Please model this.
Amino acid sequence: MIDHKEVYKSQFEEWEGLPVFFKPWYLEAICGENGWDVCISKDKGGRIEGVMPYYKSKKYGIPHITMPLLAPYLGPWLIYPLNTQKLVSKYSFEKKVISNLLSQLPDVSLIKMHFHPSINNVLPSYWAGYETHVRYTYIVNSKEEGDLWAALDSKQRNIISTAQNKFQIVMSEDIDQFYNLNCKSFTRNGGEVLYDRNYIVNIYNALKENNAGKILFSKDENDQTHAGILLVKDHLSTYCLAIGNNPRHKNSGSLSHLMWHCVRTSLEETEYFNFEGSMIPNIEKFFRSFGGELTPYYRIQKTKNKFLKGVFAWTGKL
Model:
């Protein structure tokens, strides 16, 4: 029997545009070596035409497939052949490959995935019995700093202009300091910290080893850290993976100044800056103020277990 994971590990570098979250080293950092698997679709000649890594977990002791923390996108990734320039050929290819990939998933009680924004054909998922839901992120793709500045909300421009004389941006490897700030962002409004220190340390070490991420802090003249951002990148996009903000300095403008720095400098290296948008109104408002394009991405979900259906109906989440 062919081991899809070994095939995936040996060939993933050949697929141009594969997002960082789909790469085996990232999956092993967040899921563990045995916590993920992958579906692979091949054409008649044995050429790989699509892949779909997924996270294996349990909820209430029930096996399921869902999204791991700090992996905003998984789902299908397609390797288009040269003969798909026509839309009819492209859509036919997508239907065939996505349907094939979905058919390979284990028969579990719950499947939930967030597709990458570049995958916008969810018809095969709908036909396979999945519920489909639209979510949103903001993506910036301008290269000109003047255009980026003009696109900012006017209030955000004023905040950044004032903050520029008060703070300096420092690149750091202090993951513990970042995690402490990140925890404060979760708990500031009574929220729950979603992951422990070891989880984010594993991710950061993998990012550092693969030259795919960095930590940036905003510090004042007294060397006090006000805010931090953990960035992740692949060859097309930079992603805002996580944010930390000291509640004592939440109105200092440091986070706005830091985010502005991240956006404009990241676009010198990659084509896109993805805020990994939030459906939480206050966070969405902050991201929106940086002038990115509102970009949809899709969540698919299938729930077979009656208990899990009841949990979702009662809480709105699983």
